[in-house]
């Protein structure tokens, strides 16, 4: 059933007829600085409360495409810089944050976040005005929102073509509607520039630029299936659906964005930290390209040797005690974690770190991968994401960190590494206490010259295979 409702019929009751909840102090929301902008870092519920409980606010979303446009459009850059709240949209922004050593709490993309915001607005008796997209699309989007969000009050609709051509008329209609929230869907950068230039004339206390949301709601553009969205690959779905229109944005734009994000991450660091991050990004990027044939062969060997996924993802503890998912090629059978407890007594390594030379959980291919440290190569991706460094202490398991002596926590002050002092000195043959000493010595004296020396020594350690099992 479709609600056939004309724009004129979306009229709000007079604001004084609606009982509004008492305004409370808006909760604070943390931020991460990306591309010179303060980007919100909080869970969706906190951001919704912040926007609805606060004063007049203009909201923008930042994704990879936005960052690329930002660099070449001064009017858009000004609009973004003056927005009251900027929300992170998509995996690209998350990766850019990780390059700086931060991990965003949530992906607050407009397509998912805006309906959540409107559900809370409906509960509070607030009204919304929809402006943008082709003629008729805003009406269909309003129909869908009314079906999905019972009690939502639509104050009016207006298209983004003829309806937006006369700015004075559009603003007059929006203000006359009594809407509390204005949602504009005219694409980047037009929607954000329009909102910024007219902010002082618009009556709604909350305004958002939401891109293609109306097209999704109206059914004009099919959204990616849930499994694709959970995998953070919605951009690939949109490319597949609209290859001619989206090729430039995603195929060229994503590469451009990642290069730009890397430059900003390096610029945000200082001194040795900047040099180290620059080395990490350069070496990791080069390694991904140069080793791609080896990575593909290893992945194929793992898949053919035993059932289960190619990659093994395990929670490790990173810089400042933050957990992350470390990647490896799977070198064990899929029930390895369940069998770990039964093997702890047979560890060949002193201290809290478990290692068994004859571990029965390791596959035939896995033994080869471990012998030459090929199983560790997927951690190059962790390096690109800013969760690890090329050189640093070994990333430990949560239960290992919980058992650390107090002095060992100093090793968590830097990013964990793919290689390091203990790796080139015997790896599994080194006990926990000696490893702590090595890591703390590295933390106290690390320089880019020391990192280069350890990287060169790593090649010798891999060929010798000492402690690799």
UniProtKB/TrEMBL annotation:
Q: Which residues are listed as membrane-spanning?
A: 281-302
Matching InterPro entries: Bact_transf, WecG_TagA_CpsF
The record places domain Bacterial sugar transferase at 276-463
Secretion signal, residue range per the UniProt entry: none
Q: Which UniProt keywords apply?
A: Exopolysaccharide synthesis, Membrane, Transmembrane, Transmembrane helix
| Record carries keyword Transmembrane helix | yes
* Any Pfam family: Bac_transf
Q: Which GO terms describe its molecular function?
A: phosphotransferase activity, for other substituted phosphate groups
Q: List this protein's GO terms for biological process.
A: polysaccharide biosynthetic process
Q: What family does the database annotate? A: Belongs to the bacterial sugar transferase family.
Name this polypeptide is given: Polymer biosynthesis protein, WecB/TagA/CpsF family
Source organism: Tropicimonas isoalkanivorans
Q: What is the lineage of its organism?
A: Bacteria, Pseudomonadati, Pseudomonadota, Alphaproteobacteria, Rhodobacterales
């Amino acid at each position: 059933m479709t609600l056939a409702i004309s724009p004129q019929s979306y009229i709000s009751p007079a604001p004084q007829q609606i009982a509004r909840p008492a305004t409370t102090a808006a909760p604070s929301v943390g931020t991460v600085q990306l591309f010179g902008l303060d980007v919100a870092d909080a869970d969706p519920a906190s951001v919704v409360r912040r926007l609805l409980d606060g004063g007049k606010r203009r909201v923008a979303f930042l994704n990879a495409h936005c960052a690329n446009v930002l660099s070449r459009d001064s009017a858009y850059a000004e609009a973004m810089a003056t927005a009251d709240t900027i929300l992170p949209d998509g995996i690209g922004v998350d990766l850019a944050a990780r390059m700086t050593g931060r991990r965003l709490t949530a992906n607050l993309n407009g397509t998912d976040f805006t309906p959540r915001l409107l559900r809370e607005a409906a509960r509070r008796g607030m009204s919304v005005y929809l402006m943008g997209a082709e003629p008729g699309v805003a009406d269909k989007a309003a129909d869908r929102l009314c079906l999905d969000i019972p009690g939502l009050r639509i104050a009016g609709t207006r298209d983004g073509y003829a309806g937006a051509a006369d700015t004075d008329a559009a603003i007059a209609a929006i203000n006359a509607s009594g809407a509390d929230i204005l949602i504009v869907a005219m694409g980047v950068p037009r929607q954000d520039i329009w909102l910024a230039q007219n902010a002082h004339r618009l009556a709604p206390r909350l305004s958002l630029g939401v891109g293609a949301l109306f097209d999704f709601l109206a059914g004009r553009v099919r959204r990616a299936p849930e499994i694709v969205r959970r995998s953070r690959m919605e951009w690939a779905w949109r490319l597949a659906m609209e290859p001619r229109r989206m090729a430039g944005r995603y195929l060229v734009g994503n590469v451009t964005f990642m290069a730009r994000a890397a430059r900003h991450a390096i610029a945000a660091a200082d001194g040795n930290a900047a040099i180290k991050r620059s080395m990490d990004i350069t070496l990791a990027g080069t390694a991904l390209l140069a080793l791609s044939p080896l990575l593909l062969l290893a992945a194929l060997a793992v898949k053919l040797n035993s059932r289960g996924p190619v990659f093994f993802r395990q929670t490790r503890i990173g810089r400042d005690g933050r957990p992350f998912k470390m990647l490896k090629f799977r070198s064990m059978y899929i029930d390895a974690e369940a069998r770990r407890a039964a093997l702890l007594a047979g560890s060949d390594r002193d201290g809290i770190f478990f290692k068994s030379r004859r571990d029965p959980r390791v596959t035939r291919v896995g033994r080869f991968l471990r012998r030459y440290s090929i199983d560790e190569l997927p951690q190059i991706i962790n390096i690109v994401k800013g969760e690890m460094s090329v050189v640093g202490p070994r990333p430990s398991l949560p239960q290992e960190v919980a058992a650390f002596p107090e002095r060992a926590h100093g090793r968590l002050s830097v990013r964990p590494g793919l290689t390091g002092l203990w790796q080139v000195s015997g790896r599994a043959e080194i006990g926990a206490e000696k490893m702590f000493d090595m890591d703390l010595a590295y933390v106290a004296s690390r320089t880019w010259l020391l990192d280069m020396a350890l990287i060169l020594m790593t090649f010798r350690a891999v060929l010798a295979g000492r402690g690799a099992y």
